[in-house]
Q: What sequence folds into this?
């Protein structure tokens, strides 16, 4: 039986991971670092240097930064943070931007010298923003996680030094699918309800905005208009619509998972859609969301924050696991759903944040649902089928090796293509 200490541990992971963010989290992390650097400098800079890892370039170069009047890319994120950013708000750093700030951003973007460099860091997630005004300078470095500041300096002197690997990252390696299901079945709902209720409210709101607005390629609306709108189509459409909106400038916040708004929406929205269809009690939804979110976190832990492996795959599998629980499934159903889903679409690459992420989310959700339906109908993939291993934990470990080690050269090739001529 799961102990109270372990229950508290899982509750804390949900609180730490399921936090609000406004816009795509990589450019928002850049804006956060820029706002912190400006605050440290104490004056508005006359020049800025930013060094970022390749995966940051991938995920920040093609998305609209919210509260900028439609500005896109890394330089826009830097300027937004410098002009209107509130570093105390962390991933909602741009939430208090005014119309005057937006007008000023455009002018600063045209006049402020910004040097963008590809860092030679060993970390896939690395941002270093250095701002200068006369003889004064300040620098902020964020590594491994979107708000994990590891260094703040002013005029060459250290003001703050932090850990590259936060304690929560180390602890998450102790997760298992069996214990996640046990936690979900035994936790006092009042301990997780505030965190999960906020996720439902925020993520369903941006999904609705994506379906009613005109964002990107409108993948969510295309699904509803092109297919018979059964429950699986609605689940894919709503999840994709949230990404349509988020990748293309919608200013509504989302609740993230594993540092990603897309993953936060993918892990939660399909579960909510299925819960509505099945007309189950509210408690069942919260327990299912515990499974979908924590399964996503567990799979993503071994992959890393950023890689060539599309994170929506993990979240789509997590959503499938949550749906399996809604249908009355236990550990065995959840485990087989995850294995089946991960076996189907683990070749889906991450080529940065942009409008097509919505289509990849729909694909990941579809295969999460297929993974559940396969097992429910008495079918499954077995250890030895490709990268599938016997047991869900061994399969998750295979996915981690594929993403972190096997796709390292793929990641470099993707970045070369993205930064090549014609981009």
A:
């Amino acid at each position: 039986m799961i102990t109270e200490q372990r229950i508290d541990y899982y509750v804390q992971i949900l609180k730490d991971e399921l936090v609000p963010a406004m816009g795509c989290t990589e450019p928002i992390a850049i804006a956060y670092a820029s706002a912190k650097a400006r605050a440290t400098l104490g004056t508005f800079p006359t020049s800025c240097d930013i060094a970022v890892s390749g995966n940051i370039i991938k995920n920040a170069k093609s998305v609209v930064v919210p509260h900028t009047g439609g500005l896109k890319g890394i330089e826009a994120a830097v300027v937004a943070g410098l002009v209107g950013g509130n570093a105390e708000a962390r991933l909602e750093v741009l939430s208090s931007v005014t119309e005057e700030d937006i007008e000023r951003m455009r002018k600063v973007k045209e006049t402020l010298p910004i040097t963008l460099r590809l860092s030679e860091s060993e970390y896939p997630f690395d941002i270093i923003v250095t701002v200068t005004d006369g003889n004064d300078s300040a620098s902020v470095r964020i590594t491994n996680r979107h708000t994990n500041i590891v260094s703040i300096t002013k005029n060459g002197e250290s003001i703050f030094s932090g850990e590259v690997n936060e304690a929560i990252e180390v602890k998450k390696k102790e997760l298992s699918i069996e214990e996640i299901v046990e936690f979900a079945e035994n936790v006092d709902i009042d301990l997780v309800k505030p965190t999960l209720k906020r996720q439902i409210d925020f993520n369903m709101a941006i999904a609705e905005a994506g379906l009613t607005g005109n964002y990107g390629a409108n993948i969510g609306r295309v699904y509803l208009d092109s297919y018979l709108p059964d429950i699986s189509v609605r689940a894919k459409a709503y999840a994709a619509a949230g990404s349509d909106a988020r990748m293309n400038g919608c200013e509504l916040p989302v609740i993230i998972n594993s540092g990603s708004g897309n993953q936060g929406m993918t892990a939660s929205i399909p579960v909510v859609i299925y819960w509505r269809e099945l007309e189950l009690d509210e408690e069942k939804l919260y327990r299912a969301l515990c499974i979908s979110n924590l399964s996503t976190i567990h799979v993503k832990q071994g992959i890393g924050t950023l890689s060539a492996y599309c994170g929506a795959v993990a979240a789509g599998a997590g959503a499938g696991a949550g749906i399996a629980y809604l249908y009355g499934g236990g550990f065995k159903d959840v485990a087989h759903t995850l294995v089946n889903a991960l076996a189907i679409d683990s070749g889906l690459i991450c080529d940065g944040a942009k409008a097509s992420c919505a289509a990849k989310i729909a694909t990941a959700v579809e295969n999460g649902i297929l993974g559940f339906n396969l097992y429910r109908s008495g079918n499954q993939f077995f250890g030895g089928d490709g990268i599938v291993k016997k047991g869900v934990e061994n399969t998750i470990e295979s996915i981690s090796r594929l993403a972190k080690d096997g796709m390292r050269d793929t990641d470099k090739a993707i970045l070369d293509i993205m930064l090549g001529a014609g981009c």
About this structure: The chain has two domains: 24-167, 175-418. The chain has a mean pLDDT of 93.
